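A reminder from the course coordinator: this example appears on the midterm review sheet, so study it carefully.

Given structure:
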């Protein structure tokens, strides 16, 4: 399928005969492969009698060799898939198999992408970035403190560098533009957090997506915010560089060194919010975060601290998020 997509990726017309020659198959077999590709990926194929087949627009696929060569000092083993259930799930499988760390998983499409609290992450083919890094963590819990918030800073720096200047953070793991979600972070841990474990850092960024009927919350994309399409290879490479930098500094200094930077980019700083827990809703004003990334919330006359993966934060005046 990837070979056929590459042949069509320029967005120009290609005859069934020419495609058949390139693929070493008959014209009728080309038609069957095109139908299969359209069904599996959702990529629309235009057919015009006398001219052949084309994609609605040029398509730039992820390039594993380019990414491996272009990752500078980031020494990660890179795996690129056309279609996979989840990049996080694949990273976990490779960890279980004893693959060398660190490793990076990228995919053109996820069939079972997921976000926090079990939500579905809509993952159309070759439009967005579905990105998971697996790391071995030595040294116990200190190496995990504030890690998901730190990853958010790396994503945010990448977005700002690409020109999406309106992007900001929402505690704990979201990147928004205004009230619309642009990216998210999902961390999964296996092993002993008190000693040696592995962490999978999952990052989803809406890059070139312009329509998505399945998304059940307000969303946006880099393309919608900027009016242009982005090269996902270059975006992935820059994200890797920033993530590598932040992770190295975090190992040396801990999350406390980034507390002020994170708060300066928190869109809901000093805003009235509702914090949803498993059993109740707590109203307060966001004061900030502490040195390990927990939320500091002014509730009445007290400042209370909250942390945990099942908490959800909402603006009181915009409670739909």
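Designed residues:
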């Amino acid at each position: 399928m990837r070979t056929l997509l590459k042949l069509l990726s320029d967005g120009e017309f290609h005859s069934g005969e020419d495609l058949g020659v390139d693929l070493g198959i008959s014209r009728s077999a080309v038609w069957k492969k095109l139908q299969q590709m359209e069904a599996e990926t959702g990529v629309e194929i235009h057919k015009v009698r006398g001219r052949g087949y084309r994609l609605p627009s040029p398509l730039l696929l992820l390039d594993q060799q380019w990414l491996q060569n272009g990752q500078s000092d980031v020494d990660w083993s890179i795996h690129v898939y056309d279609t996979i259930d989840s990049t996080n799930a694949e990273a976990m499988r490779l960890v279980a198999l004893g693959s060398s760390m660190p490793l990076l998983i990228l995919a053109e499409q996820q069939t079972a992408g997921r976000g926090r609290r079990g939500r579905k992450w809509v993952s159309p083919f070759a439009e967005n970035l579905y990105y998971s890094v697996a790391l071995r963590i030595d040294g116990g819990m200190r190496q995990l403190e504030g890690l998901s918030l730190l990853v958010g800073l790396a994503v945010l720096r990448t977005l700002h560098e690409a020109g999406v200047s309106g992007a900001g953070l929402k505690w704990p793991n979201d990147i928004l533009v205004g009230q619309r979600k642009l990216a998210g972070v999902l961390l999964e841990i296996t092993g002993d957090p008190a000693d040696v474990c592995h962490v999978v850092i999952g990052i989803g960024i809406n890059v070139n997506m312009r329509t998505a009927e399945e998304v059940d919350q307000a969303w946006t994309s880099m393309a919608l915010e900027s009016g242009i399409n982005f090269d996902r290879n270059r975006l992935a490479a820059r994200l890797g560089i920033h993530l590598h930098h932040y992770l190295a500094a975090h190992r040396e200094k801990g999350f406390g060194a980034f507390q002020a930077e994170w708060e300066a980019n928190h869109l809901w700083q000093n805003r009235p919010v509702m914090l949803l827990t498993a059993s109740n809703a707590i109203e307060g004003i966001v004061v900030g975060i502490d040195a390990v990334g927990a939320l500091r919330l002014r509730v009445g006359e007290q400042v209370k601290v909250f942390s945990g993966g099942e908490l959800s934060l909402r603006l009181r005046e915009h409670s739909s998020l």
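DSSP finds nine helices and 14 strands in the chain. Residues 2-54 form a domain with the Arc Repressor Mutant, subunit A fold (CATH 1.10.10.10).
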